[in-house]
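Translate structure to sequence.
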């Protein structure tokens, strides 16, 4: 029997070639696995978390894992001053993994779905920052200005560390919010990056042949 496709099928395949899209489910599963591995490292490796840190050690481990992977790095409870060479090596590896994840698949996914959001990426960013303000105002008892500042510092991964969560609930909220807001900021930075790239381009006139 012949395995050659009918002409109509071949024409449809040529007109509609397969598209290579980032799978949101794969990104979430891979991201969850990376966070879990990083959290285990922060939980078990001595010196990864300051001994004076208050609250649940499990929550602190998840919080520090996300802050490291997203490169927010508040530096409030991790690492400690007694960090061993194994801990330093683990943080270096974790940082590279986080950069690869959030500057790769997460950025691609953000650019992919931000185009389909009603109101555009600017409206989505506004809503996301508003969510951060509500979260930090309610959970960490911040005023609205500090909560908005905290949301932007987290989303842009600047992470000064001048304002940080103190409760277990606040640390978990910041960890989850960081993953959300960095994704959104990635979609916002895409058009900004394209605009700045166009400004940096220089048209070089072609040389005329003699």
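Result:
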């Amino acid at each position: 029997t012949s395995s050659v496709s009918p002409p109509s099928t071949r024409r449809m395949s040529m007109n509609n070639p397969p598209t290579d899209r980032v799978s949101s489910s794969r990104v979430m599963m891979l991201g969850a696995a990376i966070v879990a591995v990083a959290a285990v490292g922060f939980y078990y490796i001595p010196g990864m978390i300051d001994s004076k840190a208050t609250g649940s050690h499990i929550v602190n481990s998840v919080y520090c894992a996300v802050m490291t992977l997203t490169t927010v790095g508040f530096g409030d409870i991790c690492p400690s001053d007694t960090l061993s060479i194994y801990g330093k090596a683990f943080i270096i590896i974790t940082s590279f993994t986080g950069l690869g994840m959030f500057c790769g698949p997460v950025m691609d996914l953000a650019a992919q779905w931000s185009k389909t959001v009603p109101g555009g990426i600017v409206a989505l960013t506004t809503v996301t920052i508003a969510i951060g303000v509500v979260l930090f105002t309610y959970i960490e008892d911040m005023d609205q200005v500090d909560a908005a500042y905290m949301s932007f510092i987290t989303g842009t991964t600047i992470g000064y560390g001048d304002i940080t969560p103190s409760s277990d609930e606040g640390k978990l909220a910041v960890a989850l919010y960081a993953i959300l807001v960095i994704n959104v900021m990635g979609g916002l930075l895409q058009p900004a990056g394209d605009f700045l790239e166009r400004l940096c381009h220089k048209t070089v006139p072609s040389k005329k042949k003699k």
